[in-house]
Design goal:
The complex is a heterodimer of chains A (350) and B (105). Chain A has helices at residues 122-125, 259-262; strands at 3-9, 12-18, 23-30, 35-41, 47-52, 59-63, 70-71, 88-95, 98-104, 107-111, 119-120, 141-147, 155-160, 163-167, 175-176, 196-202, 205-213, 216-220, 228-229, 240-245, 252-256, 272-275, 283-285, 303-305, 313-316, 322-325, 333-334, 342-349. By secondary structure, chain A is mainly beta. Chain A is globular and about 50 Å long. Chain B starts with a strand and ends with a strand. Classes of the chains: A mainly beta (350), B alpha+beta (105).
Chain lengths: 350, 105
């Protein structure tokens, strides 16, 4: 089966398709002119694509063939009497027949009818700490959702700049899980202000989660109750956005940037760092990446893996380059195209 | 009921099968917008926010008058135009999706 990679940009989406991860077919732009913020898969199999617009708000679109798209009319929306607006859809996560969407202003929504209608997860959206939630540079966003495949009632979400929350009861109640993480934005009396950038879980043990945070790279082995810093071998301050884990080999990948002030590759050298031992140590894997100075960034949603043997890894830059590796990051190639600023890279089929 | 000519921006038209101009039957401005949503329910979220207000960066013109609230009557031949509040021009047609293939070695 072909690998299909969704490439979301500020000006539309493209899909790269390959049978061998050597030759790629590119289709697009789809939703030309719209910022495409993320992709997902509906329980029924349709590909989902989220658009956001300063002018026209956010919406979900679905397709069974990546050509004909239909907008979801009753998409996620805050109640009319809410004091906030939904301005961007950041991510999707499926759990059986449930599909979650994380949005900005930060909130979680759930659909139980194959993405046709959505309800707010009130216990989180109206959490007792809500009044103290503050945005990060990218806005007040619920941008990552993890669901335990073995127990879909166990859910973790990441909200910037608030922290990681977890639910053990299918979303009926939520607690903060940020023990040991350095706070980024001290605020009110609640233990919030953690600027989590991305989280990824072990597929067979959801208590093991890796976290790229504003303040560094961390991991937990107890579902987020306690976190330990894991930065041996990384350059810079530990700052970065994406963290992904190749399920085929267990290799972790991050892309370090030079501190929150500058947000550029350390030393002007675009580089991926990988860990084959759960984050105990990181090594540089940049063969094939640009030799010349590079000052692009890689956003939190712009990196993914395909899970195939010899793990395929993909990332897109704010400079519009799409890089991929078909050998677990040992070497990299660039798709011969320059896109608008890439906001999202998602493997949609393998 | 008056026949009102409605025009929407090309970006929104791409969501509704490319229909940029159409006619709706209505007797006031609120009904015009309601008739637009009956015809193309996809447009509601793009023109109005959750509180039902016209989005701040969406401009709505009734004939030559900019409106921010949906009050006032309409007569046969009136126009209602939706514009991006900050926008430029595009004279060309939207191009169809292109398919490109590369060999990478």
């Amino acid at each position: 089966m072909a690998v299909v990679v969704g490439i979301g940009t500020v000006k539309g989406a493209w899909f790269a398709t390959s049978d061998d991860r050597r030759t790629w077919q590119l289709s697009g732009p789809h939703h030309r002119g719209w910022e495409v913020t993320t992709f997902g898969l509906a329980p029924g199999g349709d590909v989902l694509l989220a658009t956001g617009s300063t002018w026209y708000g956010a919406a979900i679109h679905r397709s069974s063939d990546l050509e004909r798209w239909e907008q979801v009319v009753a998409g996620p929306a805050y109640p009319a009497d809410a004091d906030r607006k939904l301005n961007k859809i950041w991510s999707f996560a499926a759990a059986g027949d449930r599909l979650y969407a994380g949005v900005a202003e930060a909130g979680l929504f759930v659909s139980t009818d194959d993405a046709e209608t959505w309800e707010p997860v009130v216990a989180l959206n109206e959490h007792e700490t809500r009044s103290g939630w503050q945005p990060g540079l990218g806005g007040l966003a619920l941008h990552r959702i993890l669901v335990d495949p073995a127990d879909p009632d166990r859910i973790w979400v990441a909200i910037s700049a608030v922290g990681v929350f977890a639910s053990e009861d299918g979303g009926s109640s939520w607690e903060l899980r940020n023990g040991g993480v350095q706070i980024a934005a001290p605020g009110d009396e609640h233990d919030i202000g953690y600027c989590v950038h991305c989280i990824v879980a072990h597929p067979d043990d959801s208590n093991r989660i890796w976290r790229q945070d504003h303040r560094g790279v961390y991991r937990t082995k107890d579902g987020g109750v306690t976190w330990d810093r894991i930065e041996e071998g990384l350059p810079g301050t530990g700052f970065g956005f994406p963290v992904v884990r190749d399920p085929a080999t267990g290799t972790l990948f991050v892309i370090p940037l030079e501190s929150d002030e500058y947000r550029m590759p350390v030393g002007g050298a675009l580089a991926v760092y990988a860990s084959a031992n759960d984050g105990d140590h990181w090594t540089r894997r940049s063969e094939g990446l640009r030799d010349e100075p590079s000052f692009v960034g890689v956003l939190r949603g712009a990196m993914d893996v395909d899970g195939l043997p010899n793990g395929g890894v993909y990332f897109g830059t704010t400079g519009g380059e799409l890089w991929w590796s078909a050998d677990t990051g040992e070497s990299w190639q660039r798709l011969p195209a320059t896109f608008p600023r890439i906001t999202s890279v998602k493997v949609l089929a393998t | 009921m008056a026949a009102v000519h409605v025009t929407i921006p090309s970006m929104l038209a791409t969501l509704v099968g490319g229909e940029r101009r159409f006619v709706v039957e209505a007797d006031d401005l609120a009904h015009v917008v309601g008739a637009v949503f009956d015809r193309h329910p996809e447009l509601r979220v793009h023109l109005l926010d959750e509180q039902g207000a016209i989005r701040p960066h969406v401009s709505l013109f009734h004939n030559d008058e900019a409106v921010r609230t949906l009050t006032g009557g309409v007569v046969d031949g009136d126009t209602v135009t939706v514009l991006q509040a900050v926008s430029g021009g595009c004279r060309g047609r939207l191009e169809p999706t292109r398919l490109v293939a590369w060999e990478v070695h």
